[in-house]
Specification:
heterodimer; A: alpha+beta; Uridine Diphospho-n-acetylenolpyruvylglucosamine Reductase, domain 2; Enolase-like, domain 1; 4-stranded antiparallel β-sheet; about 25% strand; B: about 160 residues; alpha+beta; Ubiquitin-like (UB roll); DNA polymerase, domain 1; 2 domains; 5 strands; binds flavin-adenine dinucleotide; binds FE2/S2 (inorganic) cluster
């Protein structure tokens, strides 16, 4: 690891001031992506700004028809939260399936969506539920948040504070995990919400995306049979040592059908 | 920078570089070499310790992040010279071969049974996703954790 300075500000304002003052500063949440990146010398920030001293960023609460989850809420806390399990069990289940217990004890919602790994789980829930990402500056709708491979709509210096998930009528997330890393080879989040059906796919391409064909088919009838014959174009999907694009395309349809079945169960 | 933390029941103040990993502080700074480091990718779990009661990979945590925390390593489990019931169970059930993964396995198991005193075999196997063993094939590790959990329940 290259050397860097460590800061642990006690407020969002202090964190923003540090970000403004230090040329190359990186925010640290759970560190489950950032620390491995630093260890491999893939980043060399001048300073690391630990968010853990900022109060209130890990809260999980129901606010009317939505679930507000703080950016620093750990995967294990979301998985175990009675509030989440009651309001959006699919979200608790998703958090419980991330990586392994040690990763879930450190990794956070905010870190996961900001990193926007193409195989990360949370982006599927944020997009699949049509959530809103709240930052130190503004509110960003999910449809505009994830912009590409490891890219988001965030501006430099912007800090994610919470995500507000509308509570769906029903929802489910099913992933085909990479057997070694547990990241999603393909993961599909299906939700029946008050604003319609949403289907979000992670792992298959360079960035999480919505599957319009499946949404339309499920809008006609929310049943696995609606997806019979669903053909997913492999154009633009990822190919790597784990799976080719054609196989991933096939998995998308299979996972989507399983997710609908699970949402109905 | 100077940090203070509790390690195995002892208050420790250490002078560290900001980029010191918790695993390095434990092994090199405090000579607690029972915490093993076996990978560069945060995947093997050999370095697992408890930080404020939760199992974490100490190679994927800055020592600075543990300032003020309570840390327990494998050296902190045995009380008065007697092995912790989970350590004893690994011994009795031959839950190790080369032993390199063992400290992490034991610490992970201790965290599991703290939250789930009577885990099923499936729950144990699912919990061990973050701990890799290259020798045993896991069979005896799972047996050991079952036995360790039972010993802790009757303790
Ligand atoms: C072995 C292993 C297995 C894993 N398996 C999975 C898996 O199956 N599925 C999955 O989805 N993920 C997986 N992960 C990743 C894990 O979920 C991470 O927790 C997550 O990607 C990053 O969250 P973090 O809190 O650790 O963020 P950090 O590593 O602390 O930060 C990640 C990035 O986000 C930025 N950042 C963090 N918080 C904020 C914020 N509030 N505002 C602005 N920027 C911020 C940081 O500056 C950094 O660039 C795995 C990780 C490991 C090590
Ligand atoms: S040494 Fe920490 S996970 Fe491998
Ligand atoms: S006993 Fe050798 S790695 Fe597990």
């Amino acid at each position: 690891m290259y050397s860097f300075a460590y800061h642990c500000p006690a407020s969002l304002a202090d964190a923003k001031a540090l970000l403004g003052r230090i040329e190359e500063a990186r925010l640290l949440a759970g560190g489950q992506t950032l620390i491995p990146t630093l260890k491999q010398r893939l980043a060399s920030p001048d300073a690391v700004i630990d968010l853990k001293g900022i109060g209130g960023l890990a809260a999980i609460e129901r606010r009317g028809d939505a679930l507000a989850i703080g950016a620093l809420a750990k995967h294990a806390a979301v998985a175990a939260s009675p509030v989440v399990r009651q309001a959006i069990p699919a979200l608790a289940g998703l958090a419980d399936g991330i990586g392994d217990p040690q990763v879930r004890n450190r990794g956070t919602l905010g870190g996961s969506i900001v990193n926007n790994d193409p195989a990360a789980d949370y982006p599927a829930a944020v997009l699949g539920l049509g959530a809103t990402v709240h930052t130190s500056e503004r509110a960003i709708p999910a449809d505009g948040f994830f912009t590409g491979l490891f890219e988001t709509d965030l501006e430099p210096g912007e800090i994610v504070t919470s995500v507000s998930f509308p509570i769906p009528h029903r929802a489910a997330y099913v992933k085909f995990p990479n057997p070694a890393s547990r990241y999603a080879m393909v993961g599909v989040f299906v939700a029946e919400t008050s604003s319609g059906i949403r289907v979000a796919v992670t792992g298959a391409g360079p960035c999480v995306f919505r599957l319009a064909a499946a949404e339309q088919a499920l809008a006609r009838s929310f049943a696995p049979a609606s997806l019979d014959g669903l053909r997913v174009d492999s154009q633009g999907l990822s190919s790597d040592i784990h799976a080719g694009a054609a196989y991933r395309a096939h998995l998308v349809a299979v996972m989507a059908r399983r997710a609908v079945l699970q949402a109905l169960g | 920078m100077d940090i203070t933390l509790a390690v195995n029941g002892r208050q420790v103040t250490a002078s560290i570089e900001a980029n010191t990993l918790l695993s390095a502080l434990l092994r090199e700074g405090l000579a607690l070499t029972g915490t093993h480091v076996a990978c560069d990718t945060s995947q093997c779990g050999a370095c697992t310790v408890l930080v404020d009661g939760a199992s974490v990979k100490s190679c994927t945590l800055l020592a600075a992040e543990a300032a003020g925390a309570t840390v327990v390593t494998i050296e902190g489990l045995a009380a008065d010279g007697a092995l912790h019931p989970m350590q004893q169970a690994f011994h009795d059930e031959h839950g190790l071969q080369c032993g390199f993964c063992t400290p992490g396995m034991v610490m992970s198991a201790v965290d599991l049974v703290a939250g789930n005193p009577d885990p099923s075999e499936a729950e144990i196997r699912a919990w061990l996703k973050g701990n890799i063993c290259r020798c045993t094939g896991y069979q005896n590790i799972v047996k050991a954790i079952c036995a360790g959990a039972a010993a802790l329940r009757s303790a």
